[in-house]
Amino acid sequence: MIRTIITIGDPSGIGPEITIKAIGKLLKKGFDFVPIIVGDIAIITKTISNIKMKMDLSPFDDTQEKGKIKVYNVEIIKNKKFPQGKDNPLAGKASFSYLCEAWRLLCQGKGDCLITAPISKKAWSMAGIPYSGHTEALSSFSQEKTYMLMSAEKLNILLFTTHIPMKEIWQYLTKKNLFLSSITTAEFLARFYGKKDLKIAFCGLNPHAGESGLLGTEEKKIIEPVIAKIEKSGFNASGPYPADSVFRQVFSQNNFYLLISLYHDQLLPTLKTLFFEKLVNITVNKSGWIRTSPGHGTAFDIAGKNIADACPMENAIIKAVEMANRKKWIHF
Q: Alpha helix locations (H) across 68-174?
């Protein structure tokens, strides 16, 4: 059985609710995993009570018991009365502490994969946390480059730039950075799913992918040389394609695709519209550790109302367990 370390995310958002709901649904279906919830027991028990779900909880230890839910109590929030539905520094401190403890457990071999519920970047900032998100924090913890990969079914989208202002993209968009992020992601996916099945499509930065240089030169000067270098590495790479039509090409073929999105919101609107329930965020890294999360945020407006959809969290757990099972047979 795969030991899954799962953080409850920002306690003021829907993270605790979707975590409990997803675990409960998967256990009811007989899904083969050992859930280890990292959070505050006060939050977890309050959430279970709110959603009226019966759960067999036990303190975290090294034993594996099917159907049992292990809880690693971080003890930041001890009172069930805490601010909900809005950003606050206490929740920021708590959600960051959950991530720190979960990462420590993963590094100690206490779990096989990590799944994180949504956090608030503003709450982290209010608490003095110097990271703009999970991906950036995990890059610091692991001391290696990490990249954000959004996955749904056979479609995977690398966000070349993540949580930075649009005006700063030009500082990152170099041949070196684009190649490194693309080849690392391609190799990461190839190890888990096979190199032969992977097709890589690069988006252009400018309208109509630059229109042969008439609408911008980044395609010619940066993106095309990177594509050529990726192909020399043995991958099937093509483009750059206009971002407004690349999905049409992808959906016309039943292939396992990696799309390279030049900035955070270039392809995500379409992906979230079509695959919101199935969308999983994967942290790409060279070492092969596994971290996933649902592809949405804290949803403060519905926190504590027992109406949050746990399907994205459920799929994040399923994806992490699938990857952990595959990792048993591959070498990183």
A: 89-107, 121-126, 134-142, 169-172
